[in-house]
Specification:
Distance between the termini: 53 Å
Organism: Caballeronia temeraria
Structural class: alpha/beta
Radius of gyration: 24 Å
Number of domains: 3
Number of helices: 13
Strand content: 15-25%
Strand order of the largest sheet: 4-3-5-12-6-13
CATH architecture of the largest domain: 3-Layer(aba) Sandwich
Protein name: LysR family transcriptional regulator
CATH class of the largest domain: Alpha Beta
CATH topology of the largest domain: D-Maltodextrin-Binding Protein, domain 2
Keywords: DNA-binding, Transcription, Transcription regulation
GO molecular function: DNA-binding transcription factor activity; transcription cis-regulatory region binding
InterPro entries: LysR_HTH_N (IPR000847), LysR_subst-bd (IPR005119), WH-like_DNA-bd_sf (IPR036388), WH_DNA-bd_sf (IPR036390)
């Protein structure tokens, strides 16, 4: 019996997805590391194989038509299946395991990242970890420059991207250790009346989140000093120059300064948390995302939280709120 199934060239399918995601033949060629002519030829061959046009060529930037949108919805699963087949073949022939490109926000990369690399090293042939701001990481994921991203916000199209809540961390206020010496217990309102409030820059998500918290709690503090990175901010707190609102991962990232700072209580509030998510392209890297989630939670719970509580006795007892996962019991075993 003759097989009437119309085959799909996986290289052409990958090119098709890249064009849909980048909205440009030129940009798709850059992402795939081929020439624009090669991308055009692959798209033309794919359209001939399927017997239909896949793009509405009357519009710029280029976008898929009705048939193209149907193919795009199925493409992720086809490519993941092909990737899984390749992975199984390599395992069977003892030639190694896949490569993985992870992008993380800076504080996660600097605190959880090293432990995560160690815990995943025996599963990967090569592992690359990049750090950056959430908007940049999201764009790199969409452009297939990353396989997996760990961000503090998810703004990508949910039809293309799967989002897994990872954990949240509680914002923490810190002041110079000398500030509390010989004083009665105080709250953060008392601190910002005497010390300048050092802030993260407003171009970062943590800076925006802290600013919302400051306004919500009616901390009246002029905006005079902003920093992109935790290390100079915490260094100035430790030297007695000012105070700050930061997070457990940021504190662990710059833990060399912890002996010279003290924690000041903040009122409990629903917006006093920073949330982390794992992002993958839909139907891709699902099993690895689960492994990254499991190991990241274990590092936060078993390494970072005890270390911070030992270094700063005034820290809130619940630094991390771990979201429910099917593998929690397995990870705790």
């Amino acid at each position: 019996m003759r097989n009437t199934f119309v085959g799909v060239d996986l290289r052409a399918l990958q090119a098709f997805v890249a064009v849909c995601e980048t909205r440009s033949m030129t940009e798709a060629a850059r992402v795939l590391g081929v020439t624009q002519s090669a991308v055009s030829q692959l798209i033309a061959a794919l359209e001939r194989e399927q017997g239909v046009a896949l793009f509405d060529r009357e519009f710029r930037p280029v976008r898929p038509n009705a048939a193209g949108r149907i193919l795009l919805e199925q493409a992720g699963g086809l490519l993941e299946h092909a990737q899984a087949v390749s992975h199984n073949v390599r395992n069977a022939t003892s030639e190694g395991v896949p490569s993985l490109r992870i992008g993380c926000v800076d504080s996660f990369a600097a605190s959880v990242g090293p432990h995560l690399v160690q815990r995943l090293s025996d599963r990967m042939k090569t592992l690359s970890m990049w750090s950056g701001l959430t908007p940049t990481l999201s764009e790199q994921l969409a452009n297939r420059e990353l396989d997996l991203a760990i961000c503090t916000e998810a703004t990508l199209d949910p039809r293309r991207v799967e989002l897994r809540p990872l954990f949240s961390e509680t914002f923490v206020a810190v002041a110079p250790k000398t500030f509390g010496a010989g004083r009665k217990p105080c709250d953060f309102h008392d601190v910002v009346r005497e010390l300048p409030l050092l802030r993260y820059t407003g171009r970062s998500l943590i800076g925006q989140q802290v600013e919302r918290l400051v306004k919500h709690m009616n901390f009246h503090a002029p905006n005079r000093y902003e920093f992109d990175d935790t290390d100079p901010l915490l260094s100035l707190v430790a030297s007695g120059f000012g105070c700050a609102i930061t997070s457990p991962l940021c504190l662990w990232q710059s833990r060399a300064h912890l002996p010279d700072v003290t924690v000041v209580p903040l009122p409990a509030t629903r917006i006093g948390h920073r949330h982390f998510y794992i992002l993958t392209r839909r139907s891709e890297w699902s099993a690895m995302a689960d492994a990254v989630s499991r190991e990241s939670i274990a590092v936060a719970r078993d390494v970072i939280a005890p270390g911070l509580l030992a270094a700063l006795p005034g820290m809130p007892a619940e630094l991390f709120d771990v979201y429910a996962h099917d593998f929690d019991a397995q990870g705790a075993a």
